[in-house]
What does this fold into?
Amino acid sequence: MKQKKFILQENEIPTQWYNILADMPNKPLPPIHPATKQPLTWEDLAHIFPEECSKQELNMTDRFIDIPEEVLDRYKYYRSTPLVRAYALEQAIGTPAHIYFKNESVNPLGSHKINSALPQCYYCKQEGTTNVTTETGAGQWGAALAYAAKSFGLEAAVYQVKISMQQKPYRSSIMRTFGAAVTGSPSMSTRAGKDILTVNPMHNGSLGTAISEAVELARTTPHCKYVLGSVLNHVALHQTIIGLEAEKQMEQAGEYPDMVIACFGGGSNFGGIAFPFLRHNILDGKTTEFIAAEPESCPKLTRGKFQYDFGDEAGYTPLLPMYTLGHQFKPANIHAGGLRYHGAGMIVSQLIKDKMMRGVDIPQLESFDAGMLFARTEGIIPAPESSHAIAAAIREAKKCIETGEEKVILFNLSGHGLIDMTAYEQYINGDLVNYQLTDEQIAKNLENN
Ligand SMILES: *Cc1c(COP(=O)(O)O)cnc(C)c1O
It folds into this structure.
């Protein structure tokens, strides 16, 4: 069975990121300061985030932003990443659709997160910051951050969601290998953690609790900045390297996607692959569809509410306009740890509100069915998060069997699953279940918001 790969030469790798804020017909509403209720300025953001990232966060005018030379050098350790035509998967499904995937699992850390970890740490270094702190769920972001911090000579402190730390112990080892200090969240080391544990001593942790703890550490430690692996505009900006490369590679393949699909936690890998193509819908009249695949157990895009909400459980972050299930929503313990987040990034939220993109919900078992089929056909064990994108792509490819359409489907393989074998083991043993939410549960959580 043949497989076809498209790889860019070093001089073809994009040297700028794409800032979709410049082209959006309706800009996102501004993030709001929780105390003053005023729109945030970049100076407000720069109290906890790197200055350059704070500026990028609110940049509505520059369509393209230069990638710093030193970041490009680091990108070239693993970029370009391959664009692959998945013939074997197509054949197994029996679809006339052409399925392509962008393989972001081929870097030292195994997920797309490194694309933003590198510039964030670079800017910290430039600005005289010595320490960075962050949260991590399944550990992909923490691992990428630990590596990037070490690359640029920074100290990293990572709060990892407790349940994920137990499910994926090797990720903590990876972070420690790169020199990061790792703490399970909620912990007793911060005010926020103590408060959460006082109310619920058995709290499993969530990205929301870990963010609260990391933000608190950044606020109370000199020369320490908080960096975030998803949700925010500047993170999605850095991830557009994925879509910009894919654009060139699809051109090499002589095709253009009818559909672009990615899994959705906070929106960075989805935005990263989607925005460069969406710009051609906005500017050049293309009609590509954009599908964000979220877990059925954490359905903020399809069943959440568009409103201002906090990014974290304790309510330390600015208020962000987004689709949310409520900042105290406790997602089920699914294995796709990177998708267990209550809210969606501001840009994607606005674009979904404007019907320029849509969400789709994938049950846990369907995601693993898809991941297994992908592993057995393409030879790559996908991250449980990425399997949601694969499942959504398979659904669309199956629709093409009925209609006979040769649609071109492009999805992002956000990471590999080699550190997630416990999850596969449980699936193979028949020990995994689906988690559904009733409308009442969702409404009740939003009411308490
Ligand atoms: C973190 C992560 C995700 C989800 O985060 P987004 O910001 O929505 O991309 C998806 N896949 C993998 C492999 C991840 O590590």
About this structure: The pocket of pyridoxal-5'-phosphate is lined by residues 111, 113, 140-141, 230, 263-270, 338-339, 383, 385-386, 414-415 (CB under 6 Å). Residues 7 and 82 are 5 Å apart (CA to CA).
